[in-house]
Amino acid sequence: MRSMEVEETRYSSGYGKPPWLFSGSALYQLHLVKAETARAFIPKDFRLVEAFGYTLGGFFLASYDDSPVGVFDELVVIAGIVWNPPTSCAWAAKVLVNSAEACDHGRKDVGLPSQVAKFSKRMTAVPSTSEGKFNGFLNMIGLGRKLSHEKNLMDIDVTEIDGPAATDICIIKLSTDVPQPKFSEWMGPPIKMSLPSFSGNTEYNPKLLKYCCNLECRVRAVKPAKVSKGSEEEGEENDNVSLSVSVMLSKPILALEFNCLKMRVEPPTVISTS
Fold first, then answer.
1. What's the sign of the alpha-carbon dihedral 184, 123, 105, 227?
2. pLDDT by residue for the chain (274 residues), tens digit each?
3. Which of 147, 90, 158 is CA-nearest to residue 119?
4. In what helix (H) or strand (E) does residue 235 lie, and over which residues does it extend?
5. 260 dihedral zone (left: phi>0; alpha: psi -120 to 50; beta)
6. Chain centroid to CA 67: how far?
7. In sequence order, what are the residues at sequence separation of 6 or more whose Cβ sits closer than 8 angstroms to the Cβ of residue 137?
8. Angle 40-41-43 from CA coordinates, rounded to 5°
9. HSE of 75 in the Cβ direction (CA atoms, 13 Å)?
10. Can you name the CATH fold of 4-122+154-267?
11. CA–CA distance, 124 with 151 (Å, rounded to integer)
């Protein structure tokens, strides 16, 4: 990897002045992605962080209830991790949003491979009663109680829209326990974290960029979402879409649910190689 110098980048005023603020909830799912799949997305200027033929990728599925352009959904497919001494940064293979303004901002200001998409959601609430072995023992001695809660089952069909063409990308199946308000601690502890990323090298922003998302949220580990391939019309094949889907279909190793999410996105800087 060649040495790099960092300089400030210019940005459009469509989102207003940075930093850009978002709030909502998200699922951050980490997968083991084949190195050969990730390399198809990553510029030659960067070295992939890998071990035994795999890198760490996955996806970030967010639902924003407030942003510079209002409410929208976002799916960021993360190809893998690239080396950026003294740390490492993520590289996005594809970003899908159901907002034309968010797509334009991602392309021009942040250098992301953004595309407008449709998110079709089907929700089923299944009431249930949970009584584990320990709680059953407490009931026997008069100290236990049943915890009533709901389990939300949601299918999200993600379809990429490119002019008159529509391509089914994937179906994401979520299963989440929803505790009663008095058990809000189940949402997990409050944390602060930073997610540094590289971007650029696209037709809309050919420069290489680096930006950072600073998050405040409550986080808890959850059961990984199940991802299946969307239906494709026979005869149609898109290598970029197929590789992006391969990232989504790779083996999940950890899923984190972000609640009460507040995200601050700093303006990107241009990285010039020398």
1. positive
2. 544 544 454 555 568 889 999 999 999 999 999 999 999 999 988 899 999 999 999 999 999 999 999 999 999 999 999 987 777 899 999 999 999 999 999 999 999 999 999 999 998 877 655 555 545 554 555 444 444 456 778 999 999 999 999 999 999 999 866 554 444 556 789 999 999 999 999 999 999 999 999 999 999 999 999 999 987 544 345 677 889 999 999 999 999 999 999 999 999 999 865 4
3. 158
4. none
5. left
6. 16
7. 144
8. 100
9. 25
10. Acetoacetate decarboxylase-like (2.40.400)
11. 8
First to last CA, the chain: 10
Q: Which amino acid is at 210?
A: K
Distance CA 29, CA 216 (A): 17
Residue type, 62: A
CA–CA distance, 244 with 224 (Å, rounded to integer): 18
**Backbone phi, psi, residue 165, to 5°:** -90, 145
Burial status of residue 91 (CB atoms within 10 A of its CB: 0-12, 13-18, 19 or more): buried
